[in-house]
Write a structure and sequence with these properties.
The protein is α/β, with parallel strands linked by helices. The chain folds into two domains: about 160 residues, NAD(P)-binding Rossmann-like Domain (Rossmann fold); about 120 residues, N-(1-d-carboxylethyl)-l-norvaline Dehydrogenase, domain 2 (Orthogonal Bundle). The protein has ten helices and twelve strands. The strands form two sheets. Strands 5-2-1-6-7-8-11-12 form an eight-stranded mixed beta sheet, with helices on both faces. It has a four-stranded mixed beta sheet with strand order 4-3-10-9, with helices on one face. Helix 4 runs antiparallel to helix 6, helix 4 crosses helix 7 and helix 6 crosses helix 7.
Length: about 290
Protein backbone atom coordinates (compact mmCIF):
# COMPACT_ATOMS: atom_id res chain seq x y z
CA UNK A 1 0.00 0.00 0.00
CA UNK A 2 1.25 3.47 -0.88
CA UNK A 3 1.27 5.90 2.04
CA UNK A 4 0.44 9.56 1.45
CA UNK A 5 0.39 12.51 3.85
CA UNK A 6 -1.25 15.76 2.77
CA UNK A 7 -0.27 18.93 4.60
CA UNK A 8 -2.87 21.68 4.37
CA UNK A 9 -6.43 20.35 3.96
CA UNK A 10 -7.94 23.58 2.68
CA UNK A 11 -10.23 23.77 -0.34
CA UNK A 12 -7.83 22.27 -2.87
CA UNK A 13 -5.86 20.11 -0.45
CA UNK A 14 -9.00 18.68 1.10
CA UNK A 15 -10.48 17.92 -2.32
CA UNK A 16 -7.32 16.10 -3.40
CA UNK A 17 -7.13 14.14 -0.14
CA UNK A 18 -10.76 13.06 -0.47
CA UNK A 19 -10.28 11.81 -4.01
CA UNK A 20 -7.07 9.96 -3.21
CA UNK A 21 -8.76 8.30 -0.24
CA UNK A 22 -11.32 6.72 -2.59
CA UNK A 23 -8.66 4.15 -3.58
CA UNK A 24 -8.14 1.16 -1.27
CA UNK A 25 -4.54 0.99 -2.52
CA UNK A 26 -3.70 4.33 -0.93
CA UNK A 27 -3.42 5.12 2.78
CA UNK A 28 -4.08 8.83 3.25
CA UNK A 29 -3.18 10.92 6.28
CA UNK A 30 -4.17 14.56 6.58
CA UNK A 31 -1.98 16.93 8.59
CA UNK A 32 -4.01 19.82 10.00
CA UNK A 33 -3.87 22.53 12.63
CA UNK A 34 -7.14 21.46 14.24
CA UNK A 35 -8.99 18.12 14.14
CA UNK A 36 -12.08 17.61 12.02
CA UNK A 37 -14.51 14.80 11.38
CA UNK A 38 -13.71 13.44 7.93
CA UNK A 39 -14.00 14.99 4.49
CA UNK A 40 -17.16 15.70 2.52
CA UNK A 41 -16.78 17.16 -0.96
CA UNK A 42 -19.62 18.22 -3.20
CA UNK A 43 -18.15 17.31 -6.58
CA UNK A 44 -19.62 17.93 -10.05
CA UNK A 45 -20.82 14.29 -10.02
CA UNK A 46 -22.18 14.26 -6.47
CA UNK A 47 -20.95 14.04 -2.89
CA UNK A 48 -17.92 11.98 -1.93
CA UNK A 49 -16.79 11.33 1.63
CA UNK A 50 -13.55 10.10 3.11
CA UNK A 51 -12.23 9.30 6.56
CA UNK A 52 -8.46 9.71 6.34
CA UNK A 53 -6.32 9.66 9.44
CA UNK A 54 -6.22 13.25 10.73
CA UNK A 55 -3.14 14.30 12.66
CA UNK A 56 -2.62 17.61 14.43
CA UNK A 57 0.71 16.78 16.12
CA UNK A 58 3.83 16.17 14.01
CA UNK A 59 5.22 14.02 16.82
CA UNK A 60 2.63 11.37 15.90
CA UNK A 61 3.60 11.29 12.22
CA UNK A 62 5.88 8.77 10.56
CA UNK A 63 7.71 8.77 7.21
CA UNK A 64 5.51 8.13 4.18
CA UNK A 65 6.01 7.37 0.49
CA UNK A 66 4.54 10.71 -0.60
CA UNK A 67 4.10 14.08 1.07
CA UNK A 68 1.72 16.44 -0.70
CA UNK A 69 2.04 20.01 0.53
CA UNK A 70 -1.00 22.16 -0.21
CA UNK A 71 -0.46 24.94 2.29
CA UNK A 72 -0.39 28.55 1.18
CA UNK A 73 3.02 29.81 0.14
CA UNK A 74 3.33 31.97 3.25
CA UNK A 75 2.88 28.87 5.43
CA UNK A 76 6.13 27.15 4.44
CA UNK A 77 7.69 27.65 7.86
CA UNK A 78 4.70 26.12 9.65
CA UNK A 79 5.08 22.94 7.57
CA UNK A 80 8.67 22.32 8.61
CA UNK A 81 7.73 20.28 11.67
CA UNK A 82 5.57 18.01 9.55
CA UNK A 83 8.33 17.57 6.99
CA UNK A 84 10.78 16.63 9.74
CA UNK A 85 8.50 13.74 10.70
CA UNK A 86 7.14 12.69 7.31
CA UNK A 87 10.18 12.76 5.04
CA UNK A 88 12.22 9.57 4.96
CA UNK A 89 15.11 8.50 2.73
CA UNK A 90 12.78 7.54 -0.16
CA UNK A 91 9.96 10.04 0.35
CA UNK A 92 8.84 12.12 -2.61
CA UNK A 93 7.36 15.59 -2.12
CA UNK A 94 4.67 17.06 -4.39
CA UNK A 95 4.28 20.83 -4.06
CA UNK A 96 0.67 21.80 -4.89
CA UNK A 97 0.86 25.55 -4.71
CA UNK A 98 0.26 28.79 -6.52
CA UNK A 99 3.05 30.71 -8.16
CA UNK A 100 6.20 29.70 -9.98
CA UNK A 101 8.53 29.07 -7.04
CA UNK A 102 7.61 25.52 -6.09
CA UNK A 103 10.92 23.75 -5.62
CA UNK A 104 13.28 26.31 -4.09
CA UNK A 105 11.84 26.39 -0.53
CA UNK A 106 12.35 22.63 -0.11
CA UNK A 107 15.77 21.96 -1.58
CA UNK A 108 17.26 21.90 1.92
CA UNK A 109 15.00 18.91 2.67
CA UNK A 110 15.08 16.75 -0.43
CA UNK A 111 17.07 16.52 -3.66
CA UNK A 112 15.40 18.09 -6.68
CA UNK A 113 14.72 14.71 -8.31
CA UNK A 114 12.40 13.78 -5.41
CA UNK A 115 10.42 17.05 -5.55
CA UNK A 116 7.44 17.29 -7.90
CA UNK A 117 6.25 20.84 -8.61
CA UNK A 118 2.57 20.81 -9.54
CA UNK A 119 0.37 23.33 -11.32
CA UNK A 120 -3.14 22.85 -9.96
CA UNK A 121 -6.42 24.14 -11.37
CA UNK A 122 -9.21 22.73 -9.22
CA UNK A 123 -11.82 25.40 -8.44
CA UNK A 124 -12.96 24.64 -4.91
CA UNK A 125 -14.23 26.51 -1.88
CA UNK A 126 -14.24 25.41 1.75
CA UNK A 127 -17.25 26.29 3.89
CA UNK A 128 -15.97 24.62 7.08
CA UNK A 129 -13.11 22.27 8.02
CA UNK A 130 -13.53 19.18 5.86
CA UNK A 131 -16.54 20.58 3.96
CA UNK A 132 -15.75 21.61 0.40
CA UNK A 133 -17.50 22.57 -2.83
CA UNK A 134 -15.54 21.40 -5.89
CA UNK A 135 -16.87 23.34 -8.89
CA UNK A 136 -15.00 21.45 -11.65
CA UNK A 137 -13.06 18.20 -11.81
CA UNK A 138 -10.05 20.33 -12.69
CA UNK A 139 -6.53 19.33 -13.61
CA UNK A 140 -2.97 19.02 -12.33
CA UNK A 141 0.20 19.14 -14.41
CA UNK A 142 3.68 18.04 -13.33
CA UNK A 143 7.05 17.68 -15.07
CA UNK A 144 7.57 14.67 -17.31
CA UNK A 145 10.15 12.78 -15.25
CA UNK A 146 10.16 9.64 -13.12
CA UNK A 147 8.75 11.35 -10.04
CA UNK A 148 6.15 13.20 -12.08
CA UNK A 149 4.94 10.01 -13.75
CA UNK A 150 4.70 8.28 -10.36
CA UNK A 151 2.61 11.19 -9.09
CA UNK A 152 0.23 10.92 -12.05
CA UNK A 153 -0.34 7.23 -11.26
CA UNK A 154 -1.69 8.13 -7.79
CA UNK A 155 -4.74 9.75 -9.43
CA UNK A 156 -5.63 7.06 -11.96
CA UNK A 157 -8.90 6.30 -10.14
CA UNK A 158 -10.05 9.94 -9.98
CA UNK A 159 -11.77 12.24 -12.50
CA UNK A 160 -9.10 14.89 -11.97
CA UNK A 161 -7.05 15.21 -15.18
CA UNK A 162 -3.52 14.67 -13.87
CA UNK A 163 -0.81 14.62 -16.51
CA UNK A 164 2.84 15.34 -17.23
CA UNK A 165 4.11 18.16 -19.38
CA UNK A 166 7.42 18.52 -21.17
CA UNK A 167 7.35 22.30 -20.55
CA UNK A 168 6.47 22.84 -16.90
CA UNK A 169 7.76 26.42 -16.93
CA UNK A 170 5.20 27.43 -19.53
CA UNK A 171 2.33 25.74 -17.69
CA UNK A 172 3.29 27.36 -14.38
CA UNK A 173 3.35 30.83 -15.93
CA UNK A 174 0.04 30.24 -17.72
CA UNK A 175 -1.54 29.41 -14.37
CA UNK A 176 0.11 32.47 -12.83
CA UNK A 177 -1.48 34.57 -15.56
CA UNK A 178 -4.90 33.28 -14.47
CA UNK A 179 -4.14 33.85 -10.80
CA UNK A 180 -2.67 37.33 -11.13
CA UNK A 181 -5.86 38.59 -12.77
CA UNK A 182 -7.85 37.45 -9.74
CA UNK A 183 -6.24 40.18 -7.67
CA UNK A 184 -8.83 42.57 -9.13
CA UNK A 185 -11.59 40.43 -7.59
CA UNK A 186 -9.80 40.47 -4.25
CA UNK A 187 -9.32 44.23 -4.43
CA UNK A 188 -12.99 45.12 -5.04
CA UNK A 189 -14.41 42.02 -3.27
CA UNK A 190 -16.54 40.84 -6.16
CA UNK A 191 -16.71 37.29 -7.57
CA UNK A 192 -15.89 35.98 -11.06
CA UNK A 193 -18.82 37.84 -12.61
CA UNK A 194 -16.73 41.01 -12.24
CA UNK A 195 -14.95 40.05 -15.48
CA UNK A 196 -18.12 40.96 -17.40
CA UNK A 197 -17.47 44.60 -16.51
CA UNK A 198 -15.26 45.78 -19.38
CA UNK A 199 -13.37 48.31 -17.28
CA UNK A 200 -12.44 45.70 -14.68
CA UNK A 201 -11.64 43.22 -17.44
CA UNK A 202 -9.19 45.67 -19.00
CA UNK A 203 -7.35 46.03 -15.70
CA UNK A 204 -7.16 42.24 -15.49
CA UNK A 205 -5.80 42.09 -19.05
CA UNK A 206 -3.08 44.58 -18.10
CA UNK A 207 -2.00 42.44 -15.14
CA UNK A 208 -1.84 39.40 -17.40
CA UNK A 209 0.08 41.24 -20.12
CA UNK A 210 2.78 42.09 -17.58
CA UNK A 211 2.84 38.46 -16.48
CA UNK A 212 3.27 37.37 -20.10
CA UNK A 213 6.24 39.71 -20.61
CA UNK A 214 8.00 38.49 -17.47
CA UNK A 215 7.13 34.86 -18.11
CA UNK A 216 8.66 35.01 -21.57
CA UNK A 217 11.84 36.44 -20.06
CA UNK A 218 11.82 33.44 -17.70
CA UNK A 219 11.62 31.01 -20.62
CA UNK A 220 7.87 30.41 -20.82
CA UNK A 221 6.21 30.10 -24.23
CA UNK A 222 3.16 32.30 -23.75
CA UNK A 223 0.74 33.32 -26.54
CA UNK A 224 -0.13 36.91 -27.37
CA UNK A 225 -3.84 36.26 -26.77
CA UNK A 226 -3.38 34.95 -23.21
CA UNK A 227 -4.90 38.08 -21.60
CA UNK A 228 -8.10 37.62 -23.62
CA UNK A 229 -8.12 33.88 -22.90
CA UNK A 230 -7.89 34.58 -19.15
CA UNK A 231 -10.84 36.97 -19.33
CA UNK A 232 -12.84 34.40 -21.30
CA UNK A 233 -12.13 31.86 -18.56
CA UNK A 234 -13.36 34.18 -15.83
CA UNK A 235 -16.48 35.01 -17.84
CA UNK A 236 -17.17 31.31 -18.34
CA UNK A 237 -16.81 30.47 -14.65
CA UNK A 238 -19.68 30.27 -12.19
CA UNK A 239 -20.64 33.92 -11.62
CA UNK A 240 -20.51 33.56 -7.83
CA UNK A 241 -17.18 31.70 -7.68
CA UNK A 242 -14.52 33.25 -5.46
CA UNK A 243 -10.79 32.79 -5.94
CA UNK A 244 -8.57 31.95 -2.98
CA UNK A 245 -7.03 35.42 -2.71
CA UNK A 246 -10.52 36.93 -2.55
CA UNK A 247 -11.64 34.32 -0.01
CA UNK A 248 -8.61 34.92 2.21
CA UNK A 249 -9.17 38.67 2.21
CA UNK A 250 -12.85 38.23 3.08
CA UNK A 251 -11.90 35.97 5.99
CA UNK A 252 -9.18 38.30 7.25
CA UNK A 253 -6.50 35.68 6.62
CA UNK A 254 -3.00 36.28 5.23
CA UNK A 255 -2.97 36.40 1.43
CA UNK A 256 -0.73 34.94 -1.27
CA UNK A 257 -0.14 38.33 -2.85
CA UNK A 258 3.57 37.72 -3.28
CA UNK A 259 3.12 34.34 -4.97
CA UNK A 260 0.38 35.60 -7.29
CA UNK A 261 1.38 39.19 -8.14
CA UNK A 262 4.46 40.16 -6.18
CA UNK A 263 6.53 37.50 -7.92
CA UNK A 264 5.76 39.17 -11.26
CA UNK A 265 7.12 42.43 -9.88
CA UNK A 266 10.21 40.74 -8.40
CA UNK A 267 11.03 38.68 -11.48
CA UNK A 268 10.25 41.64 -13.73
CA UNK A 269 12.80 43.78 -11.88
CA UNK A 270 15.38 41.04 -12.39
CA UNK A 271 14.87 41.30 -16.15
CA UNK A 272 14.42 45.07 -16.32
CA UNK A 273 10.72 44.72 -17.19
CA UNK A 274 8.33 47.29 -15.75
CA UNK A 275 5.26 45.86 -14.00
CA UNK A 276 3.39 48.89 -12.64
CA UNK A 277 -0.09 47.34 -12.69
CA UNK A 278 0.93 44.36 -10.57
CA UNK A 279 2.91 46.60 -8.21
CA UNK A 280 -0.12 48.86 -7.85
CA UNK A 281 -2.59 46.08 -7.12
CA UNK A 282 -0.27 44.57 -4.50
CA UNK A 283 0.06 47.95 -2.79
CA UNK A 284 -3.68 48.64 -2.87
CA UNK A 285 -4.71 45.22 -1.53
CA UNK A 286 -2.17 45.50 1.26
CA UNK A 287 -3.46 48.96 2.15
CA UNK A 288 -7.10 47.88 2.00
CA UNK A 289 -6.46 44.81 4.14
CA UNK A 290 -4.65 46.90 6.73
CA UNK A 291 -7.46 49.44 7.10
Amino acid sequence: MTTIALIGPGAVGGTIAAWLAQSPALSVTVCARTPFDGLEVQTPAGVITAAPTVLTDPAKARPVDWVLIATKTYDTASAQGWLDALVGPETRLAVLRNGVEHVEPFLDRLPAERIVPAVVDIPAERSAPGRILQRRDGWIQVPDDAAGRAFVALFAHTPIAVSTTADFTTQAWKKLALNCAGAVNALVLKPASLAHDEGAAQVMRTLVAECVAVGRAEGADLPDDLPDAVIAGYRGAAPDSVNSLHADRLAGRPMELDARNGVIVRRGARHGIATPANAMVVALIKAAAAS
